[in-house]
Amino acid sequence: MEKVRRNERLSAMLKTLSDTPNHIFTLSTFCEMFGSAKSTTSEDIDILRDVVTSFDLGEIATVTGAAGGVMYRATVRKSQARQYIEGLCKQLSGTDRVLPGGFLYYSDILSDPLITRKMGAILATEYFDDEPDFVLTMETKGIPVALTTAHALGVPLVIARHSSKVYEGSAVNINYVSGSSGNIQTMSLARRAISKGQRCLIVDDFLKGGGTAKGMIDLMREFNVEVIGMAFVMSTKTPVRKRISGEKSLMTLEIASHGDDQEIAKVTPAPWLLT
Amino acid sequence: MEKVRRNERLSAMLKTLSDTPNHIFTLSTFCEMFGSAKSTTSEDIDILRDVVTSFDLGEIATVTGAAGGVMYRATVRKSQARQYIEGLCKQLSGTDRVLPGGFLYYSDILSDPLITRKMGAILATEYFDDEPDFVLTMETKGIPVALTTAHALGVPLVIARHSSKVYEGSAVNINYVSGSSGNIQTMSLARRAISKGQRCLIVDDFLKGGGTAKGMIDLMREFNVEVIGMAFVMSTKTPVRKRISGEKSLMTLEIASHGDDQEIAKVTPAPWLLT
User: Fold this and answer.
1) Complex ipTM value
2) Cross-chain Cβ contact A167/B193 below 8 Å
């Protein structure tokens, strides 16, 4: 094998690390990949750490000990996150996206690969330290952002369904009261999807009354799984009192009247982003 | 600003390019980012192209002309793709994952961030040249792989629903006959989700009779959108004649009897991967 130069090693190393985020790679992995010595690889990592920091591309962390090594985290600084979310709020505010009944159209935002990737990185940044074992979402609209959050955290995504499907095998079903409609609905999750004692981060697209979120917490209780956090893309300003608390949303939505027969959406960054 | 060294520039450049795949960055973007001359940036790109190729990390392409620049594509070589899919087939084959009724449990695979990312890159590799404007999927299980495919292709994801929702606004509904159950079902898509004359790549998790896929084609016809391709994670061996043709699947599923009262799943890479 030809000798690999440092600039080649660094770029291939960062690509490899960032493709599998929050996952520890041993130094040996890279020594073998490039045919270089441990001391050289350590120096490479030091340089990479500075590059990533100075260009705001996330974070390179080294983990010491027997199971040690190096990993990449797609962390987003609070100021960057705020700026990004402010841009989204601007895009979503106004009268264009308000639908009859006071709903906001933002399905396009929720399934955009680049936007959900950024939102996932922002949410993951808040939950690295809580070390969730998986991300849980309830079908359908929250799936993309839940997937990108799970990717950034280096954990699997688990999707609860509205009813149990034959191709999911034996399942745990719970009933919950939908916050918006007041109707009783069913939430279902395959038994083999998760294990007792795991730690769960709930990620979903929309929080209004909190009925669905409360249902997800109840569902996790049935599996003896601890919910370590709840994150949402959008939270409504009212009702102020929701059935859950302690959640982090990215944006707050208020629909206000705007002249005769018209409504306007006011979307603002969530308070925790402004501190 | 301190002078940025080549090894720093290259890693930051590759990270930036690969975070937004199949998107043309002008040379000026990087000249400004690093405070370097155009000639230097061109040399950087040449080195990066070789690095990416020699470590099988995808492809760096330069585009000439007024709208020219450089872009990253997460292309996967056929031999690599085959090897990866063979690994998945091994994991899915056997008796463990067969559910009553002859269904295969693979929801965990379909929502794993790393696996869906790889599957998305493999599928995108087949459709770069067809230049789709968006990826269409039908809720729910195909959403993660459709998202990763869309990300690799640098286009939005559009999700069709089982019924029109109030928060999606005016919608186009079509009825289709589900291949597996023979029941008539409804498929719905918000009018504002796509525009007339666009090109669509359909990506979904499962193909059996082809009823749902046929429904998606009909839905696109209503929007005057051309379907340029159809890709699936899993296709069943029977029925051999499906309602659609020309699709690419990653794996083929056969459920066979395996002694008394037991069934076994035989999952194999799709034929096109073996050529």
Assistant:
1) 0.96
2) no
